[in-house]
Amino acid sequence: MKPSADQPMAPASKPEAKPGAKSDPKDDLKTLPLPEVEKKLESSPEGLTQAEAQKRLAQYGPNELVEKKTNLFLKFLSYFWGPIPWMIEIAVILSGVVGHWPDFFIILLLLVANAVVGFWEEREAGNAIAALKAKLAIKARVKRDGKWINPPARELVPGDVILVRLGDIVPADARLLGGDPVEVDQSALTGESLPAERKSGEAVFSGSIIRQGEICAMVYATGEKTYFGKTAQLVQEAHTVSHFQKAVLKIGNYLIILAVALVAVIIGFAIYRGDAFLTTLQFALVLTVAAIPVAMPTVLSVTMAVGARLLAKKQAIVSRLVAIEELAGVDVLCADKTGTLTQNKLTLGDPFSVNNVPAEQVILNGALASRADNNDTIDLAVLGGLKDKDSLKAYEVVHFQPFDPVHKRTEATVKAKDGKTFKVTKGAPQVILELSANAAQVKPEVEKAVNEFAARGFRALGVARADGDGAWQFLGVLPLFDPPREDAKATIATALAMGVKIKMVTGDALAIAQETAKKLDMGANILDASGLGDSKKQEDAAVAASIEKADGFAQVFPEHKFHIVDVLQKRGHIVGMTGDGVNDAPALKKADCGIAVSGATDAARAAAAIVLTTPGLSVIIDAIKESRRIFQRMT
Predict the structure, then answer these.
(1) CA atoms within 13 A on the CB side of 55
(2) In Å, how far from its chain's centre is CA 146?
(3) Which residue of 4, 241, 247, 628 sits 20 to 30 Å from the alpha carbon of 196, by its own alpha carbon?
(4) pLDDT of amino acid 143
(5) DSSP letter string over 53-103?
(6) Is pLDDT of 127 > 50?
(7) Which of the residues 336, 482, 508, 592 is marked catalytic?
(8) % of the chain exceeding 90 in pLDDT
């Protein structure tokens, strides 16, 4: 992120460097050494004063993305603009001029009814989506005047020192100050399902979630200058005209040409024959009214409005009425993996054990080295893998040492019911092997198992146990993965039977994408998106064909998603896109039918044409079926 894009230019009246002022590309607030960042932001770990924060708030604006709102009156008037409305309006004027008042009022009523129905339905959908934004009102822990306060996150400014802890949504782009590393869930931004470790000095981005630890951080970018400012820009750049709108425009243009030609012929004959002007005008009116499907826009709008109500009952809010027709015609659906095809929840797989140790014993010892209170995703996954949830009651954890990045493992001292004490540990397999007395004996098979898990996109944990004062003995390896949604496989099969090809799109590694695709019977042709270029790049025919034939895409960034949708559209496909994260928003807007799934971020909801309020993919198939029935009524 270049500083020129990080923050606004300092006022010209004050030539001295201002916080985040424009500078050399090398002076990147995301990567510069912390002391230099503090100097540029004119701040310190003690934070800002309230007076300085207010001054900067006026300078940089609130910490929020500005949503461009259309004037309601202009939005209503837009329904009177277009080839068919123009012709209807001409017919209204001609009816008034010749005094055909019944025609005048009937045609005018149909014109206004079409506008009112379309405007009202889209406004109601907008209100429903706005009601889903309750989660936005988050607060931040900020140090002002040396004291910790909790103002709304929108009041944050560059230079503020914030405290983020377990479960917090990071309120702005910030650099971590001194302290222990934290685990950060960036799935809403990058699509990666596993948390990433961030150390002191590294950057964390607005919208990510702290999954483990707590640390202070210095804000360096707010609002539209944050990491997904580029994403927001892509959303604004994405404009599409629906196939329905194109068809109506085509009909309208054809009818205009036909009507104008025939009216010209009538006027020509009238002039040649010397007919009275009023008589000629009456003939022109009859022809114009006959040439225009006056009721067509109203009938279509009412049909789509009724359809939108039916879809709402199936937990799909339609924010743009033409999305119903687009959804009916979708033949390629780009589905975001994390949270859409999968549960976005780490789950324990089938363990690997050494020396014939029962798999359940490996899980039990791993669970004893875990703590539910920490709310750590890995610990919760291991505990969730226990078949007998009451088995832990037979043990008392005397001492627990949580995970830290130096030792890379957790350790617990445990007392059994018979009074015997033993220790258990879990962590990175290579670390656990180094501890274990039986490492030389089991190392080859353990490394083979870890490599096999890695090839399938699983994260591996080693488990060891030491009885009394004895040496550590390696027990086995626990694999962790993000499982598919229960209804995903059946939904994909149903979609295929309906002529809709599902393509997986994910920010995760290729191996993880391939394993997920394999479990869902989606096909094994997963492309690495890193070589696909971005939205500004024109693909050659071979690469475009590979995108069209691919079953999915891995290691995808926002511009890749946008680009994939663009390429598919250029190859004649009607493209649907499902997603939930900020990173999905540009592609949701660009797609013929963008679908924000349940629990989606506000950016995704705002960009989507359809917003789902219930989890899973099956609701999408129901919506496609319903939209096809609606479209059949319209045609």
Answers:
(1) 10
(2) 37
(3) 4
(4) 94
(5) HHHHHHHH--SSPPPP---HHHHHHGGG-SHHHHHHHHHHHHHHHHT-HHH
(6) yes
(7) 336
(8) 28
Decide if 606 contacts 588 (C-beta within 8 A). Answer: no
Give the burial class of 559: count Cβ atoms within 10 A of its Cβ; 0-12 exposed, 13-18 middle, 19 or more buried.
buried
pLDDT in tens, 61-109: 888 766 566 677 887 888 788 777 777 787 788 778 777 788 788 878 8
| Residue 552 scores a pLDDT above 80 | yes
- Both tokens of 318, joined, read 């339609």
37 closest CA partner among 228, 215, 177: 177
Q: Which amino acid is at 577?
A: M
Structure token pair of residue 495: 């979609």
CB of 196 closer than 8 Å to CB of 234: no
Report whether 126 contacts 188 (CB < 8 A): no
d(CA 567, CA 539): 8
Token readout for 498 is 């309906």
Alpha carbon distances (Å) from 536 to 237, 539, 563, 567:
12, 10, 8, 11
Residue 622 CA to its chain's centroid (Å): 21
Catalytic residue at 336?
yes
**pLDDT of amino acid 398:** 92
pLDDT at res. 526: 93
Retrieve residue 28's tokens: 């990147």
Confirm if 45 and 215 have CB atoms less than 8 A apart.
no
246-247-253-257 Cα dihedral, nearest 10 degrees: 150
Residue 191 φ/ψ region, left for φ over 0, alpha for ψ in the -120 to 50 degree band, beta for the rest: left
